[in-house]
Design brief:
Order of helices and strands of chain B: HHHHEHHHEEHE
Shape of chain B: rod-shaped
Number of domains of chain A: 2
Helix content of chain B: 25-40%
Helix content of chain A: 10-25%
Number of helices of chain A: 4
CATH architecture of the largest domain in chain A: 6 Propeller
Number of strands of chain B: 4
CATH architecture of one domain in chain B: 2-Layer Sandwich
Oligomer: heterodimer
Structural class of chain A: mainly beta
Shape of chain A: globular
Number of strands of chain A: 31
Low-confidence stretches of chain B: 45-51, 87-93, 128-154, 156-174
Strand content of chain A: 35-45%
CATH superfamily of the largest domain in chain A: TolB, C-terminal domain
Largest interface: A-B, 81 and 104 residues
Low-confidence stretches of chain A: none
Largest sheet of chain A: 6 strands, mixed
Radius of gyration of chain B: 37 Å
CATH class of one domain in chain B: Alpha Beta
Mean pLDDT of chain A: 91
Chain lengths: ~425, ~280
Amino acid sequence: MLTLLTLIPLLFCSSSFAQDWIKAQTGLGAENKPRIAVADFAARQDATKSHSALFTQVVRDDLSYSGIVDLVSPSFYPTQQPSVPSELRYMDWTASQLNSQYVAFGNLSEANSEVAIQAWMFDVTNPSSQPVVGKVYRGAATDDQVRIFAHQFADEIIMKLSGGTPGIASTHIAFVSARSGHKEIWIMDYDGANQHQLTHLNGIALTPRWSPDASRIAFTCYNPTPEICMYSLDANKVVAFPKFRGTNSAPTWSPDGMQIIFSSSMNGNPELYSIDSNGGRPKRLTYEHGASTSPSWNPKTGQTVAFVSDRSGIPKLYMMNSDGTNTVALDVPDKGYLIDPAWSPNGQILAFSWRRPDDNYDLYLMDIGSRNIVQITRNAGRNERPSWAPDGRHLVFESTRSGTRQIWSMLADGSEARQLTTSGHNESPNWSIR
Amino acid sequence: MTTAVANPRSPDVRLKPFLTISGICHGALILLMALAGYFNFRGQQWAASGGGEAIDVKLVGNTGLPMPKEPSLNDSQIVDPSKSLWKSDVQPEPPKPQQQKEIAPPDLKQVPDFQTLQKYNKKPPPPPRRKDVLGPKKENPENAVPGPRSGAANIPVGPSTIPGTSPTAGPALQAQTGGDFGARYPWYVSAVTRRLHQNWQQNQNMIDPAVRAARQAQTTVTFRIYKDGTVKDLKITQPSGNSSMDNSAWRAMLSANSMPPLPNDYTGSYVDVTFTFDLGLAQ
């Protein structure tokens, strides 16, 4: 009996457990982006070929535009590409001209108009490791659904490799388009695909702003005077919102989605008011002569609001607490009009459009803490109304650089600008959180 | 009953002039008071006409709200003079060999087996060769066009320095691991390193410029990542000796208040991390 009792503790120290630990270090130099190759996803049936090509292309585009990874050019890929893990030959991918660290591959099969996608991502510098990502996607065998799955897979890869930055591949952009004959609110995928119309008001709709939970879009509509209107994506229609005298425009949401600040001339001068996002009585925030408009609520702290006011004579940027107190001017070291402030998701950087005396409207970034300013567009038409992506690395804006006013997106250092819309006149984009 | 009555007709007591003077003085006094009251309080009158709601004036101290800085009399910040062609310091000295770092002591609760002890006894790896690949570190030759080499914006915050071209991937990030975590999940280690690298870049402006230019200071922190990615037990175990450097490392850690969750098929419940922020490293 006693020996049994002494033996029991032995059951609890089964194998020697060495606590896992990691030691790592970093300097301040430029980042070493991971290199990833995306093999051609195999099509198990001939009919699936278009979908597998689409899936591969969308994943490649999403990864190369993310700013987080370097996509290895497909022209170097080996001829024999894996479709399941057992076919993966590590040496092919780590060869010197490829030098990739990660490989994504998989296959698609379709039956009864349902598609099944198997997708993996392996670390090829480490032959014994488990796959970093292994997923199966099942859904309708349509182009739209295949796109959605490709975006999800790319987001999964970005999430794993970036150490926590969310991928933006599944996000959307709301914008104003006049291509139907009237300015209405439209929506599209972050890469410009899938553009479709949301509102059919046959009037003028402007300044769409996504709510923080992406369930509603607040915008300015002319009814016939400018009012704040609300579109519900759950109900797929415009829902009621209080109307006020005068001109009411430029809504911005609080980070918790409970309040909206907007510009209104209900008491004569355009001033900023805050209101409950379900409607209610507006509370006045600014009391200055001159117009105050284009408010942008800090999405990280919810404490400060940046806005544009011409109380000094010309439009300049100001910042105040969200209850209207403590207004400060955000001075810049040159003259000109400053408009369209937009906070980055981490609440530290303000993007805005600035027309300096001899120049065009260009986009600038200001670090709020240090008031450093950097210019991110140059010699490329008029650039206005920037809006940040939820990863804080991309911006969408309107630009006339192609000759007509269109929506463009780019990385936050000004590189890799790409045009998202082509038909008609498009403006005033806003990036959703998802 | 006798009443004393002033004799109005007495020639030597005349009241009228005195009354007049008294009246004038009193009147002047009252007039002065009225004027003073008018000038002092007329501001209030004007304020009251501006609308029914009072303007709330609070004395806001530095209570941790993100208060904007007082505008400082700097030159234009668009052209950053520190990135100009003329640099006051000469070539930095060639990279030092990596100093012997403390290896984390074995967990003494369990008696480590021989295999594990071997890991702790082996020599540290040779200094990383990355720094020597391109020759001794040369900041900017005399005639080089200055500025960021990857299209990164000069604004010293994260988002604008990340995108753009990057040097081709060098050898895998130098990290040591214990147990088998690093062997099985090197991508996770890389991801954590990358995340902290970005966060540190966003906070690099806090570091004293002299310390940053000297490229020597190192701060080592330890923390624990749990299965769901929460970070706990954050400590600075090896301060650099310079508070601005330590603060920048601390801020970098705080901005990363949660890491990605540990890999799904990892059986442990947490991983201890020792991380060094080293100004001397090229990357």
